[in-house]
Structures are given as structure tokens and as C-alpha cells.
Amino acid sequence: MDFRFTPEQEALRKEFDDFFREEMKNAPPGYVGGMEGMSSEEGWLFHKEMAGKMAKKGWLVRPWPKEYGGSDAPVAEQLILSEVMGYYGAPGIDIFGVGMVGPTLLAVGNEDQKKEHLPPVARAERFWCQGWSEPNAGSDLASLTTHAKRDGDEYVINGQKIWTSNCHHADWIFLLARTNPDLRRSRGISFFLLDLNTPGITKRPIYSMQGSYLFNEVFFDDVRVPAKNLVGEEDQGWAVTRATMNFERTSVGIMSAGRRDVEELVKFCKETKWNGKTLADNPLVRSRLAQLAIECEVGRALSYRIAWMQETAGLGPEAAGAASAAKVFGSEMGQRITYTGCQLLGMYGQVKADSKWALLSGKYEDAYQLTSGANLAGGSSEIQRNLVAWVSLGLPRT
Amino acid sequence: MNLDFTEEQEMLKSSARDFLTKEYPKSLVRELEEDEKGHSPELWRKVAELGWIGLMIPEEYDGMGMEYMDLIVLIQEMGRNIMPGPFFCTVVLGSLPILTAGTEEQKKEFLPKVASGEMILTMALVEPSATYDAMGVEAKAVAQGDNFVINGTKLFVENAHIADYLICAARTRSGSSPEEGITLFLVDAKSPGIKCEVMPTTGLDKLCEVVFENVSVPKKNVLGAVDEGWPVVARTLEQATTAKCAEMTGGAEAALDMSNVYAKDRIAYEKPIGANQVIQHYLANMWISVDTSKNYLYETAWMVGEGLPEAATKVSMLKAYLGQAYRFVTERGVQIHGAIGTTRDHDIGLYYRRALTSDLAFGDVDYHRELVARKVGL
Predict the structure, then answer these.
(1) For residue range B206-242, what is the model confidence (pLDDT) as tens digits?
(2) Alpha carbons A371 and A368: distance in angstroms, whole number
(3) Residue of A294, A309, A337 to mutate, testing the B interface (most B Cβ within 10 Å of its Cβ)
(4) Which of B89, B301, B217 has its CA nearest to residue A3?
(5) pTM score of the predicted model
(6) ipTM for the whole complex
(7) Is A362 within 8 Å of A369 (Cβ atoms)?
(8) How confident is the model at residue A212 (pLDDT cuts 50, 70, 90)?
(9) 3-state DSSP call for residue A189?
(10) B contact test, residue of A278, A337, A388, A397 with most B CBs within 10 A
């Protein structure tokens, strides 16, 4: 074994690091990173601006083939990029367009679809959102009921999606709809690409508990989508979703974001005195922060291993189990970091960013209310544990 | 980057698994726990013939000349199967410091005998203060002619009752820091003035009290420089702590596999208990603990093998993580097995007990968290 990155990879890391450290100085005040950071008007503009800059540098779609604007970058390089961006909480990569639509079309899209849809993503001109979850189809996605009926050269879509992150900012949506009412569950579902300017689409905000607007309900009333926007075969959309999930699945960004938080909390504890003693002198504080630092490290090592597995053997069962593990590990670690952060601030843990009394920019007050979302989005912790049990341990599916 | 084992390491792993399963069945493990010696000299010879004791000893001293990562692979399997006896103390605590600090004469004198299985070694470091910090070393050694004379009490000395030589840390000078003035000695275990008694402990793995009363050691048996033994101890602790983590990882993996098999076999309410989501999630959590432990073990072991300066922090992170993970996995393992898991006759208890004793060895979770706290700037 050899855990060293190559000198070229180290140089790349430095280049990324220099860029994002500088650029993040221009982030809007109180910018929180992640999907949430992009949800506000100014956050979304910053995201688009960063995407544009990354596109110019050739960094936006590095894993894609050269002919579509990428550089065929290996997973290890994507790992480094994600790690650096996670550390700085940097936006710029549209995980839906770059991370999901791209790999899907590259794997199963036809030539016309690739030519039409990949370049605008690579140039940071078109942004996507994901229309999968429905009010009664979350973890149990195959029970979705939104349907699409063929009508000449078009399909007519009716139904409702929910938890559609940043749909209010996005240009296009990729969605799953039932095309065959006679087939049950995952059979009879198709995968569509849809311009959000199409008539018949209504978005309604869902406000998160701390007041931000990230999620939408999206209603489809006789929405007409050209048949050419069907990806893969009709009724075979479930198989297409496998390609959609085959992006870099290391969760390394969660781990490096955690490391950044722990560094910040260490600094805070060294500078902050309660009752005449710094927090850093408190053995309980030392133990808690040390434990979190350890978890960030252990999580990072897991992410590196997944990158290695994905690079050498693809996303087979072994890597898929580990990817589920990393998602659970990372999101629950993030939650523990947040709770520890709140606790370390004492009574100030509840003070919002816009108060002059806010500590650490009110970050943990905000994060406290958002942190549970990470255990639910992109496959809940329960679903991930089921997958580990079934895929990695061979336990019976129930 | 290359995160795969070499072909040789894969072979070592599978041949170790075969050998240990065959030669060290759990019935023997239990028997040896009750045995006075705690190991089988006959099997020890077989282990020596396989070249394992001299795995890292260079060929010029009759060893195999392999690397630290190879040793980690082997010890993980020993932890998985459980292999009672003096392998860990002889190889990790005995031969590695000699390789690090021994003179050519000492290497020639000791290493071939170690590799052949003739000589059992151990390290006498910890004292009644029960810490792995340098300040815990209070035993004194005073120069007298061609000898040093050692006085003091050592505790938790692995297999001292069957050891031929003890590497003893004693204070030869009081320095400005606890790390200064410590000297290591290669002490013949039969020297007059040594009293050794096996301590009854959870692991039944022959941790000993060793009392040194005016024990004479020839000056040529000083290991490393006089007064400058601590860096050798520190390096050995780095290697040993990581090796202990390999043993723990192997044990956790075994406890997980055993519990997984049991969950599939045990029928309740007309279905395997492993069909229940609550059991599946216990096992998923255990799997995550084991998988993360393995990854971090290999990365840390690679750093220790390369002798990188940042290894010390990683080792503490690893040990703190494993101390918790091994206990978690075995505790859930017992729970999944139900009442039978709490019995003397069931194998899961062998691991459950070792989860405690190996957490305590080389610094427990809290000890290493504090070291990590310092390293991250607190």
C-alpha cells in the first residue's frame, strides 16, 4: 500500500486550495455553504458566478470526457477537488447537472441528448434540479404516482414532486414518472428531462424550520415534454437511475467540512474564557473535540478508500456498501459537530447571525436547525443502513 | 496511491487464517487461558518454522526481512482468531526495539534466537502508576562497576513468567523532563532478584507483576544510549499501539462475522432474527465500525512503517477510535447472541473480554483523546 498522492495530484490540490481560499473571501455575508447556501438569491448568484469561474478554468466537469468539456479526470482528482471545496464550503458545482444528469446521459443518453444537454452544463449556463421524491414516495421511491402519458411526439405529465431543492432557481428538472399504469412499482417508470419554463409547472416554497427557502413542492398539470427528452427506454427509467447514482460517492466533502468546523471550534475554545478559564482547559471540551477530530480523520480515510475502489473497480457492491457507510458516518458526524458547537457557545448558542451578540457568525444556531436534513437527503440514514445490511452483510431483504 | 495489499500480503493473510483456524481452535484458546504457561511450546515451534516470529527481522539475523505492513496483516489475523501466547510481546515489544536501537552484537546475540523461537522476549515498562507516559517510569538503575543495579516494580508485563529476557525501562538520572534519564536494559529473566507473579486479569492472558530487587545487569546489555531510552520506547509504543489496533480490528471483524452468521441462523417468530430491521441496523453499525477501523488502521500502519513524523498523532487517533469501536462491536455482538452470548462456553465472550483489555493496553480511549487534543492545538 501507498497512501501518497502523486506530486501532480499534490500540485493540483494546492491549485484548488489557493483558488477556493481566495474566492471564498467574496462569499455573501453569512454564507453557509452546501445546498442551503445556494438557496437565497445572493447565494444562488454566488454559486453561478463560481460555476462560471470553474468552467473557465476547466474545473467544472473534470470527470467528463474531453469532447463534452471535461478532462477525463480520474476519481482521485475529483476526490481532491471535492475535499478542498468541502473544506471551504465552496459552491460552483451543480450536483444535479454536473454530478447526475451528466453521468446519466454519458452512460445511457443518445447522441442528440448528449449534444443538447451536456455543453450548457459544462459552460455553467444551465442548472438542474431533481424531481424524484413525492409526498408519498420518499425512501420508497418506487411507489411514485406522477404519471406521463404519450400523446404523439410528446408526453403529458401530471402529478406532484416534493423536497425539490433549489427548483426555484434551476432551469431544468430531471424527473421520474410512471408511463405504464399496469406495471407495478419500479417497472413502468420513465426518466425525463424537462425545461422548467414549460407551461403547467407550479412551484410552491417549503420553508425550513430556521426560515430559509431551499425546498419546493412542484406541481405538474398537463405539462408537455417532447418525446426526445425521454432518457433510455420507456418504462425502463429505474435502470437509468443507477447511472444517475454512479458519480463520485466518497462523501469526502462532508468529512473536510467537518475538519474545518473542528479547527474553528478549537480556535474558539482557545480564545474563549468562561469563569476565568479558557474552554480549552476543560477536560470534557478537550475530549469532545478530540473525538470529533478523530471522526473527521477516520471518515476521510473511508472516503479515500471509496475513491480507490471506484477508480479501480467501479461502483460495485463493495464500493456501494462503503459509500452508504460513508454517507451515514459523515452526516451523523456533522450532526455531532453541530451539537457540540452549539453546546460550546453556551447561552450564545441560540443567538442568530444578525445579532451583534452572535458568536461564530451564528453559524451553529443556523446549523442546529438544518443538520437533521443531511441524515434524510439523498437516502436517509435508515435506508443507507438497510443497504449496508443487504449489500455488505447479505442479510435478507424485508 | 495504491490502497491494495500486495499479492504476498494476500497470501500471508489467507495462509495465516488457515493455520490459525486449524491450530488454534477456540477450545484450545480456552484451555490455554487456564494453563499455567498460557501457551503451547509445540505450536510456538510451528509458528517459528513459518517464519512469523522473525517476519520483520532482517535475513542476516535469520529472519524473513519483511515489512511492518506485513506484520500488521499477520497480527490482524491473530486478533481475528485469537492466538494466545508470547507472539506480540516477543515480536513487537521485544524484537522491534532491538532492531531500532540494538548494537550489532546485541542483534547478533538476540535476533536469531528470537526468530527461531528459542527466546521469548517482553517489555517491562508500566508500573503501579499504570501509565504509558515517561513520568510513570520510577524504577531506578544505578551504575556499579561493570553493571547497573535495578530496583523497582513493573506491572502488566506480558508473559514475563515465560520470558527469557525482559526489556526493562528504568531511570538512570533525573532529567529536566520525565522523558530524560530513562535507560533500557536487556535483562535476563533468570537474574537473581527478579520475582514474577501472574496477575489474574479479564483477558487471562498472563499479565505479570515483576519485582526487581537489586538486579544486576551487565553494561553491555544497555539497549540504546544510557539516559536516552525514551525515544526508543516512544517508537516501540507507536509500533505496538498500531499493532494492537490490528489485533483489535481482527477481533472486531470476527465478532461481526460471528454475529452476522448467528443473525441469519437463529429463528424467532418463524424468521431469522437478522430479517428484523433493528438487528440489521445493529449489524450495519457494527459493519461501519469495522470497515472504518480497517481503513484507518492501514493508513496509520503505512505511516508508522514509513516512519513519518505525523504518525504519532494518527496512532493516537486510531487507538482512541478502536478502543471505542471494538467495545461497541463486541457489546452488540453479545446482545445479538442473546443469553448464550454471556456464557463462558461461547466464543463471543472471548472477544468481548479482549475488547476491554486491549482498550486498556497502550493507553485507553481517554488517554489517547487527550493526546489528540494536544496535537490539534488544544
Answers:
(1) 999 999 999 999 999 999 999 999 999 999 999 999 9
(2) 6
(3) A294
(4) B301
(5) 0.95
(6) 0.95
(7) no
(8) very high
(9) strand
(10) A388
User: Cell 504457561 sits at which residue?
Assistant: B37
Q: Residue window 282-301, chain B: list those with CB within 8 Å of chain A.
A: 283-285, 287-288, 291-293, 295-296, 298-299
Cβ(B199)–Cβ(B250) below 8 Å? no
Instruction: For residue B179, give every residue at least 6 positions away whose Cβ sits within 8 Å of its Cβ, in sequence order, or none.
Output: B134, B230, B231
Q: What angle do CA B297, B303, B305 make, to 5 degrees?
A: 95
- In the chain, the amino acid numbered A271 is E
Distances in Å between the Cα of A395 and the Cα atoms of A386, B64, B341 are: 9, 41, 20
Element (H, E) at B232: helix B230-265
Q: Which helix (H) or strand (E) covers residue A160, if one does?
A: strand A154-162
Contact B275 A322 (CB under 8 A): no
Q: What angle do CA B277, B278, B281 make, to 5 degrees?
A: 80
**Alpha carbon distance A26, A92 (integer Å):** 13
Q: Give the residue numbers of A marked as catalytic.
A: 248
* C-alpha closest to that of B264 among A275, A346, A394: A394
- Give contacts of B328 with chain A, Cβ < 8 Å: none
From B28's Cα to the closest Cα of chain A, the distance in A is 29
Nearest to B292 among A329, A386, A392 (CB): A329
Neighbours of A257 (CB within 10 A): 23
Confidence of residue A249 (pLDDT cuts 50, 70, 90): confident
> In angstroms, rounded to a whole number, what is the distance separating the alpha carbons of residues B150 and B188?
12
Q: In a 3-state reduction of DSSP, which class is residue A358?
A: coil
Contact (CB<8Å) B378/A385: no
